[in-house]
Design goal:
This protein is mainly α and 173 residues long. The protein is built from nine helices and no strands. The protein has one domain. The relative contact order is 0.16.
């Protein structure tokens, strides 16, 4: 019976278990200090880039969990995509263009995940990746990419010592 409920869409959605984690990611990414003190642009792109940065760190932590993390990583990505779809619709992107915008956002997220995964252990490489992604290669006078990199490395270190159950529950702050 459970199989039939799941088959026909009546079963629980496993992505729902990852919503608290995603909310925690967005909460960290929207902390005012990133924007007011560290010069991250408080724009749609800047906010996307901070969500992508924090989400990337969490995905790296999930990957470190091995097999138990595989489905969690997939479901978390799906929650991210669902949120981004809602965001592009909210800003007025019509049905015809939603898929195109989502495709670009998912590709951007994938690129950032790769860049941050490779750079997290090297402060200079992480700073360069942040300048390239957050500031599009041109940090303004208020930008503090070295401090952003330092704070992201601290978040990554905390994630590395956070129990798996706490990560899944969104207790990452």
């Amino acid at each position: 019976m459970k199989f039939l409920k799941t088959l026909f869409g009546f079963g629980p959605d496993p992505r729902e278990d990852l919503v608290p984690l995603y909310i925690a990611i967005v909460h960290i990414a929207r902390e005012p200090a990133w924007y007011a003190e560290l010069g991250v642009p408080d724009t749609l792109d800047g906010r996307f880039d901070m969500v992508a940065a924090i989400l990337s760190l969490v995905q790296v932590r999930i990957e470190a969990e091995g097999a138990p993390g595989r489905s969690a990583g997939t479901y978390l990505t799906e929650v991210f995509i669902d949120d981004m779809e809602g965001q592009v619709r909210q800003i007025g992107i019509g049905d015809v263009l939603v898929g195109k915008h989502l495709g670009k956002m998912v590709a951007a997220m994938g690129g950032r995940l790769t860049a941050y995964r490779e750079a997290i252990a090297d402060p200079a490489a992480l700073e360069a990746a942040l300048v390239r992604n957050i500031w599009r290669g041109e940090p303004g006078p208020d930008a503090r990419p070295a401090v952003v990199a330092e704070r992201l490395r601290a978040i990554s270190a905390r994630l590395g010592t956070t129990a798996w159950g706490d990560v899944l529950a969104g207790r990452i702050g």
